[in-house]
Amino acid sequence: METGSDDVVRFRERLGLPGIIDVHTHFMPEQVLRKVWAYFDAAGPLTGLEWPITYRYEEERRLDLLRAFGVVRFTAMLYPHKPGMARWLNGWAADFAGRTPDCLHTATLFPEEGVEVYVKEAVEAGARVFKSHLQVGAYDANDPLLDPVWGLLAEAGIPVVMHCGSGPAPGRFTGPEPIGRLLARHPRLRLIVAHMGMPEYAEFLALAEAYPEVRLDTTMAFTDFSERLSPFPAAERGRLADLGDRILLGTDFPNIPYPYVHQLEALERLGLGDAWLRAVCHGNAAALFELPEG
């Protein structure tokens, strides 16, 4: 099948999963998504390599595909690259969540005047997860404007998926050191490190070991595509097993240069066992977001 849905279903059924929970999927206003795709098509400076978009479809077909895969919950990861954009994106995301009940209501932020106000509004409107992209946004997670926001989200127990690793290209504010400073001030922040912290895998795993509320998502990690660029160190594989309750499936759908099932196969070939896979692909996220297990 062109979309690979049969392969995903077979993977899910073999593991006996009630469904897949993907914490890192992208839905955003169509005009914004088209610009993102154009950036990948042009091999922009943050990628610098050929990056075909496998699931370049209209929104409704992309939703149908996730459901055909058996994805029962997913997110609408979206992010601003300049001031004055986040509140508008949050309005779109609230509407999207309202018409898409299997999407976890997603919101975003940017260090700017008024950020605490619109983040609080998003929380009160039912946001379940936030997205922070330090690389695209080119901002410091330790910006004083964000400090009350991190406190608010930590208090509310709302996870933040943060692109803070230095892959595919380092940013001014990426890397484990600034995140370590952030967590020292907000140790209860439910931070989900996107892409397993690629390429600083070991350092972000160490932060997860130090802070019980830190998690990592698998987005693009362990795939053939990423292993060519930033291979996961074989010596760190044991830590993946030890932190098995705090690793969550993420894929970057639809903006991936390979079929969806390849992310799942890449996790399976780590050889960490079916119980680990079931936790990563469903159980861990179900517990974090207090979703039904069945």
Automatic annotation (TrEMBL):
The keyword ATP-binding does not apply. Residues 21-291 form the Amidohydrolase-related domain. SUPFAM superfamilies: Metallo-dependent hydrolases (SSF51556). InterPro entries: ACMSD (IPR032465), Amidohydro-rel (IPR006680), Metal_Hydrolase (IPR032466). CDD domains: metallo-dependent_hydrolases (cd01292). It comes from the Bacteria. Keywords: Lyase. PANTHER family: 2-AMINO-3-CARBOXYLMUCONATE-6-SEMIALDEHYDE DECARBOXYLASE, ISO-OROTATE DECARBOXYLASE (EUROFUNG). This is Amidohydrolase family protein.
